[in-house]
Each structure stands twice: as C-alpha cells, then as structure tokens.
Design a protein that fits this description.
The structure is a homodimer of 553-residue chains. The first copy, chain A, has 553 residues and is of the alpha/beta class. The first copy, chain A, has 3 domains: 323 residues, Rossmann fold (3-Layer(aba) Sandwich), CATH 3.40.50; 75 residues, Luciferase, Domain 3 (Luciferase, domain 3, Roll); 109 residues, ANL, C-terminal domain (GMP Synthetase, Chain A, domain 3, 2-Layer Sandwich). Helices cover 28% and strands 23% of the residues of chain A. Chain A has an 8-stranded mixed β-sheet, sandwiched between helices. A 7-stranded mixed β-sheet of chain A has the order 7-6-5-3-4-8-9, sandwiched between helices. In chain A, helix 1 crosses helix 9. The interface between A and B is large, with 72 and 72 residues. Chains A, B: One of its GO terms (molecular function) is ligase activity, forming carbon-sulfur bonds. Chains A, B: It comes from Streptomyces collinus. Chains A, B: Its EC number is 6.2.1.-. Chains A, B: Keywords: Ligase. Chains A, B: This is Fatty-acyl-CoA synthase.
C-alpha cells in the first residue's frame, strides 16, 4: 500500500530556491585581502546561479549530466557554481588544487570535463596543465589574476562576469531523479589511481538536513560559519549546501588561508562557527599565541579530517572556542560521526573531555559496525577492535568508472552486502562512541587477531630512550603477520631490544602475544611529504632485506 | 548518470534502531497519577517494539501492509506501537478518541482495522462501539482499566503484556520501499466523510529530520519534550519519531491532560520543551495563576493547531516559557511553517513579537504559494491575500480511498499540478512570513477579489455598541458573492446599520467596495459545539429566508 504523500524529489535546486527566497538576506562574505571583504546576499547568489546556468547551457553548450569542473578557492562564485551546475542537471566536479599536476590531469581526463571554472589566482597552476587536459574546451575565469597566462592555450577563455551578464535571473530548474549524480570528488588515494565518488541530489539533501540537526552541527540563520575546509575537499564538508538550507551566513577565506588573515577575519567578521582540519587550527593557535585577537565569537569549531590532538582541544577551550570533533571521509559526504558528549556528562570534566576526544557517535542516517580480521562482527564493548564499516543514504557504495564505465566495487572497499569498508580500525563503546586507533592497512593480522601498530608505537615512544618508533606488519609463516619494531634511539641511549621488550611487557597494556619478535634500529623513520611515517618504505626495505633485523623471544 | 551512493531506504525501523542503540539510555516517562511516573528507556522500547511485532505477526496473524489501529493516550506502549507496526511493514492507524462514536466506527470500517491496541482506560469508549466495528477481530489491552467491559464482545481480547512476554527482543525488520505506507490519520472534516491521510516511511523520516533541525524545533538528547499533543493527532506532530532520532527524552501525560497534573509534571520532571494546542495552554495559564509552580525549565513551547492569542504568548513570556508558533494540518505531517523571527531582530521588541505571532516561515522541504480567487499566483508582499497551497515530500497529494480503492484527489483539495490546497487564506511577507487570516470557505469572493470575513468581523466588533458580529458570503447576481453582516447589539444600543457602515468606512482599513450592503440583527450568533461561529447555519438561514435583511448602499 503506497502512501498518499506527494512525490517530491530531494533536489539541490530546492535548497537553492529555499535559501535565496526564505533566507534571501543571508550573506556569503568573501575575504579579499583588502580593507573590505566582498558581500553577496543569498538572493543575489540565487539570481547569479540562474544566470550561470543559462550561460553554461546557451553559450557553452552544457547538456545532460555532463561534468563541469571548478578549480577554485572558497568564495561566492564557487558557491554559485555549487548550485547552478547540479540544479541544471549537470555534475559539479571540484578539482583538488593541492594534488600533484599529473594526478589532476588524470582526474580531469577521467571525468571528461569539457568546462573548467577557475579562479584567476589559480591560472599559474592551470595554464601549464592545459595541454594535458584533452577534453577541456572552455575555461571560465573568475576574480583577479593574470589572464595572459592562458594566451595560446587551445581552449576558449571566458570572463565569468561577462558570460553571465544580462542572462535571465531565474531558471526553470528541471525535475530530476533525486538519485541522479549532482557532484563528484576524487579521493587522493596513496595507492592506485584516484577514485571518483559521485554524490546524488538525494545524498546531498539528506546530508545537509543531518548537518543542520541540533544534535549535529545545528546552525541557524543567526550563525555565521567560517568555511575554511576547501570547497574541493568533500564539498567543504557539505557546509555550502547545509547553510543555504537554513540561512546560515558563510564567511569564505578565498586564498587567504594563512594564520594571520584567518585570525583577522575571525576578529572582524565574528563568525560563530568554523570548520577545518587540525593543521589549520595548529597554525591559528600559534598565531593567536603570538598576536592575541578577540576570537570569542567562535562558539563551535568543527575539527575533522584527522584526529584532533588533545593539546589543541585544551588550548582552544581556554580561548573560549569549543572544539567539536567529527569523523568522515570523501566516501561519507563526509559526516560519519560527531563527538557530542552524552547528555548528563558535566561540562569541563575529564569524563566529558574523553568523550570529546573520541570520533563520536553515528548520527541518525549512518549505521556502523566493526568487522574483525576473520570477517566476524565485533561487539560494541569499547575493547574489541575491528575495521569500521558504514552504511547510509549519503555513504558511497561504489566508485565512478568513467563516463561509459560500470561502477567499481572493489572487494577491499565494499562488503558483499554493500557497506563501505572505511579502512579505519577502532572500537565502539557500549554507548556508541567510536574511537579510531589505526588505518586497517597498518594493523598487524596475527593468527586471526589484530595487533595495533599505533598502540605499540605509542608505548615504545613513551620509553625515555626512544626518539621515534614505527611498527609495521611483516609476513610470518606461522602467524600470517607479526609486528616489526623499528626504533630510533636518543643519543647516548644504552637501551637494548631486550630492555625495550621488557618495558613493553611491563606496561600492562600490551599482551604477551602482541610483543614484537623482530627489532631493528634506524637513524630516522622514513616519512611522507606531509611528515607522516611512511610505512610503505619500511615494508619494502624489510622485504628487500635492507634492514638489520634482530630476533628475540 | 547515477550517483555511486548506497541505496538505503529511509525507514522507521532505522529510526527505531538508531534511537534504541545510540540513544538507548534516553527515556520515555509516562505520568501515572501516582507518586512515581513510569520510566522506560529507549533500549527497552526497542526491545519491546520487537516483541510486539513478533506477537502481531505470530499470534494475531498481521501480514503485509495491514492496518493496525491504536486507541490510546500518549504513553510508552503507544510509542512501542508507533515503531513496531510500521517497522514490520504494517500501517499504524491512530484513532482519534475525541471523535463522535459513529465517525470512529466509520473510520475503523473504512480502514479495515482487524486489530486494535487500546488503553484499558478507554474501554468505556471502545466497548459499546465494538458491535459496529465489522473488521475488528482482536483487541489488545494495555494499562489499567476494567476488562470486563469487553465481556461478550465478538472479538478476541489479549493482555498486551502477556502477548509480548517471552517474544524475541530483536526483529529482522524488512527492507521496505520507503514510499510504502507507514501510518495514517483521518481528518475530522466538518463536511463529508473523514478523509484518510497516509504517511510514508519516507515522509515520516524526512519530517523528523526537519523537526530536529536547529532552525526548526531543534531539540537534542539534553532535552525532554512534554508531548501533550495527542499521539492520535497527526502523530503527535511527529515528536515520537523526531525524538527517537536524536535521543530527546519524552514526557507523556497519558490521560492526565487537566491543568493541575500538567503543572505538576512540569514542575517535577522539568521538561525543556512542550507541544500542544492553545486551549491546553490557556487552561495551564489559569492553573498557574491560581497555583503558582516552578515551570522555568520550559525554554520552548510549540503552539499550533490554531492561532495563538497574543495575550497567551505575552503571559507565557512573563513566566519564562518562550512560545514558538507553528502551523500545520493533518495533510502536512504537520510541520508547514514555524515562526522563528529572522536573524537580527532584537529579542523582546515589538517587531520580534509581531514576527512570533505570524504563522512563520516555510522550513526547507516545504514550498508555499498563494492563489487568488481566479487561480492567479499572488506576490509575497504582505498584502495580497490568497489561499495557501503547499508542496513537499511530507505533504499529502491525495486521500486514502479504502483498501481496494484508488486515491482520492478532489479538485478543491489538490491543484492540477499536485499541490495541497490548504483551505487557509492569508498573506506572505517579502521575507517569507505567513499570516493566516481566514479559512478559504469563509472568504467572500466578490467580483474576482477576496473580502476577508474575519477582518470585517473584527472591525465591527471594535464598535462600542456591538457585542458580536459574524460575516458570511451570500450569493449576488452581479458580484458572485457579497458579504452579509450579522450583528448582535449590546443592550441599550442606539446604533443603526447606517452608523455601523459609516464606522467601518471610517476605520480606514476597509475599502469602500468591501463594505457590506446586507445587514441583519440577531440575538446571538449561532455557535458550534466548541464555541466557534457556525457560519454554515447562518448561510442556511439566509438561503431559507429566515433572516430579516436590510439592504444598504
């Protein structure tokens, strides 16, 4: 028996129409580096998004569900593209300007982008790339920047403002299937080719509603959100869509992501909310310590992307900026968990702080489960560690395989019953709080049990003689895998492998069967370009016999 | 191009599972009239809902999308039925215990309810009705009440607790189509047969998300909601579903809806939110004036169902209970508008108060438009009055026509393009605030323009000699309809129709062409059982020549 409800699809055009009428006076403020930032109302954004859609359709011949790319910072024009492109039925493809050029080229070619909307300030990045971007026919340039960089390129170059000028300020947005593609991001995987995640109108709409729930980020039209997380990074965590849905003002930093301008825009524009990855906040904290500013407007700071260090959370608390930890990934739109402490836990207590340091709870709409090394379901007991798998209407169930390809569903990324394997390993407490401890690929699978490399590393690094320690899995005939401990000793240390092993055993946290048998000393742990332990290199060095291994036990 | 997102249907079983795990310690507290209220955790509700579903399926043979009725107050068992019945695939049919018995019987027969879950305290209502309820085979009784009232009835009688005892506490909820029927309510229309509105899993889920948005009611697991609005009245405005989605505690008054117990439960349980119609709050206000209590916990009071009198809002403000006005109807799930003042309007000002007295703005997901007497779209200018039409995924697009019937789409209820004609007349301001002034059927359609009967009545009643005044439309050869003014004069009044008409003209608010030509004096305006002007009677009296009409102008 069907219901008697109207069959109204959840479309991004509806978010646009709602925001630009009901919340028409809310604003997108873009930092310019000048005295006055640039301000544009939601009503103006709505009118200009309609103009952009007309221009893309009539002048650039965008049809159907063609991908239209953006190479842009967070600013008002990027918000216009966010709404115009999916609303007209095309697919917004945000390009990550931080990727290596060859990856960027691969992605543009894979998505078959024919049009790129680019900030003028990013032409130095785009221009040398253009000869490698086969499908690109049109580049639409917004904002300041040297256009002559595109001279001689085999594309048609358009000024954004000229292109949209005089176009009608409304558009008869089509009634699309809500499951149709609306936007896409490629994950910058460290192994293999980048993988495209394609969001639907439905997934964006539902994710926006979720973000707006009071139990989640819960902003209203009285708020202003400083959207530091880039619009090319998982749709700026869904904030442009979510804010348009409820009239939350947006403060956009454009290319001014350095600590000093961020501090200045917080002081002068007084946002009530901000969202960024920990490194941004670490930089801001250093800036504020050196040059204090009034940042008291920031009642809620969403931190995600990687785990928030406790010291950062503490320091922000002292400045009156309350951190809310969240977890997600490109494949999860991204809100997967959010760390609001449970009701009844008193503010300012150690118990509350511990809850806030977890990755948090699943919001309504996201289901999570832990899978052990043998594929078994693990209990929510705060102790059983397994790979996190998630399900929900804004969670990816496949990757994009090009305009003519089938979807990709690699078995290491999606379970047989369709859940996303996140590649993150952790525990879930009885009251539903997720604590991530490892990436699955860094976990050691020993005799059907898992050993956390991070736990061993942290224990080793708490020894006074150890400067650095990295633990990786190495093949073992009997157990499948066993841990290899790679240690950098401090100068003058007299520690031996035996004393380190005894130290680990004495800590109490490490079970006897988890203790490493294989040990090696190195001068420094190999690191990636962003300073993380490069475990791939260690594993390769071990495999090629380049490490001097001592066997214990 | 389809997205790569998972295809996860929005189901009520997912709300149940989320609430009973992530928010398992949140509580449903039911008032008992004894010293201690009854408390049940969301985890227990989840387990018992699974038991109820097993019992309905295995013992009572409930299959497919069968309707299962409830005749119950707001209490924990009713919440269990709310989740068990739709989650298993059946359709929850809440019976309005305030309807006249013959209407109730018509509805049960029309819906073909085979099972009724009834509170023991309502058996005095149900027992005499049973012989007229042809399809009913099973009555499941919860809570205190004299079971012997059912002796001799041609149904099987079950004790709710006995029925569910020992059943498994989990249930493998089916993956349903989210557009499938989940719950139904009949509107108690004053004309014609009651009309069934059938909610889908999708509409309930989306409505719950909307209610939980910070821009809307915006409750969290730190809140407790006193759900006074009955569960048989548009799903208690969606609160049981919305609260389970975010862990909001529910305080349920059961049958104790009188002002004194309501005041007592507010003082002792300290809810932070409450929802009810104005008459409940009028009663509570009188009670609190006579017997002051500490009601300071109530930070937000949602008032809907009919317009909130300004005096009530003022009085509640003084008690520290902030009223939030909302509008909706059975056909709108019900949240259609909510009156949060726009950002930037200072609290406590006249401007803010005026915004709060409107019906409010459409939330994301609801679109509204005004249609004039000739079917034309009217502007949002705060002046053009038209019938409100709404569209959205939780708005009805038809009525239920029985188990084997097609849907009903009467042309006076649904537009050709599928919008709901609400039957309410009002204006929308440029910033999107709806102000309702009339029911469409009370508006006078004169020469392609509308005349508000309520406006004329209010103007007339502001004359010192007028005790009561009712204005209705009567047929007119030239204009289609014209207003008839029916006046009750105060004792000793010397006012004439001419002076009253001159008074209206002099008021400035009433245009000359809106002034009534037809006047009559009556001893009292006929009233309905709930004290409203009964305009049907006036129209009939006019049509049958029973009124003594004076023609002016």
């Amino acid at each position: 028996m069907l219901s008697t409800m109207q069959d109204v699809p959840l479309l991004i055009s509806r978010i646009l129409t709602h925001g630009s009428t009901i919340h028409g006076t809310s604003q997108v403020t873009t930092w310019t580096g000048e005295d006055e930032p640039h301000r544009r109302s939601f009503a103006e954004i709505g009118a200009r998004a309609a103009q952009l859609a007309h221009a893309l359709k009539d002048d650039l011949g965008v049809t159907g569900d063609e991908r239209v790319a953006t190479l842009a910072w967070n600013n008002a024009e990027h918000v216009e593209a966010y709404f115009a492109i999916p609303s007209m039925g095309a697919v917004l493809h945000t390009l990550n300007l931080r990727l290596p050029p060859e990856q960027l080229a691969w992605i543009v070619n894979h998505a078959a982008d024919r049009v790129i909307i680019a900030n003028g300030s990013l032409l130095p990045l785009l221009a040398p790339l253009l000869p490698h971007l086969k499908p690109v026919e049109h580049v639409v340039v917004t904002g300041p920047g040297d256009r002559s960089l595109l001279d001689g390129a085999d594309v048609r170059v358009h000024e954004y403002e000229d292109l949209i000028a005089g176009k009608p300020t409304s558009y008869d947005w089509p009634e699309l299937d809500e499951r149709q593609a609306a936007a896409m991001c490629y994950t910058s995987g460290t192994t293999g080719d980048p993988k495209g995640v394609v969001y639907s109108h439905r997934s964006v709409y539902l994710h926006s509603m979720q973000v707006n729930m009071a139990q989640s980020m819960g902003l209203t039209d009285e708020d202003t959100s400083l959207v530091v997380v880039p619009q090319f990074h998982v749709n700026a965590w869904g904030l442009p869509h979510a804010t348009f849905m409820t009239g939350v003002n947006m403060l956009m930093p454009d290319r001014f992501l350095q600590p000093a301008p961020l501090a200045a825009m917080i002081e002068s524009e007084r946002p009530t909310h901000a969202a960024a990855v920990p490194t941004i906040w670490q930089g801001l904290l250093a800036e504020l310590t050196a040059n204090p500013r009034d940042v008291s407007s920031l009642g809620q700071v969403t931190i995600g992307g990687s785990a928030c260090p406790p010291s950062l959370m503490e320091a922000f608390d002292k400045l009156g900026m309350r951190v809310c930890h969240a977890w997600g990934m490109t494949e999860t739109s991204p809100l997967g968990t959010i760390a609001r402490p449970p009701a009844g836990v008193a503010a300012g207590t150690e118990e509350e702080f511990a809850y806030r340091l977890t990755q948090g709870r699943f919001p309504a709409g996201v289901e999570g489960r832990l899978t052990g090394p043998g594929g078994e379901r693990l209990p929510w007991d705060g102790e059983s560690a397994g790979e996190l798998e998630v399900r929900g209407p804004w969670i990816a169930g496949a990757y994009y395989n090009g305009p003519d390809g089938e979807s990709l569903r690699p078995a290491d990324k999606f379970s047989e019953d369709g859940w996303l394997k996140t590649g993150d390993v952790g525990t879930i407490s009885a009251d539903g709080y997720l604590t991530l401890t490892d990436r699955a690929k860094d976990v050691i699978k020993s005799g059907g049990e898992w050993i956390s490399s991070v736990e061993l590393e942290n224990a080793l690094m708490s020894h006074p003689d150890v400067a650095e320690a990295a633990v990786v899995a190495v093949p073992d005939d009997k157990w499948g895998e066993r841990p290899l401990a790679t240690v950098v000793l401090k100068e003058g240390s007299t520690a031996t492998f035996e004393t380190l092993r005894a130290f680990l055993a004495g800590e109490g946290k490490i079970a006897k069967w988890q203790l490493p048998e294989r040990w090696t000393i190195v001068e420094a742990v190999p690191k990636t370009s962003v300073g993380k332990f490069d475990k791939k290199v260690l594993r390769r060095q071990y495999a090629q016999g380049e490490l001097d291994i001592t066997a214990l036990g």
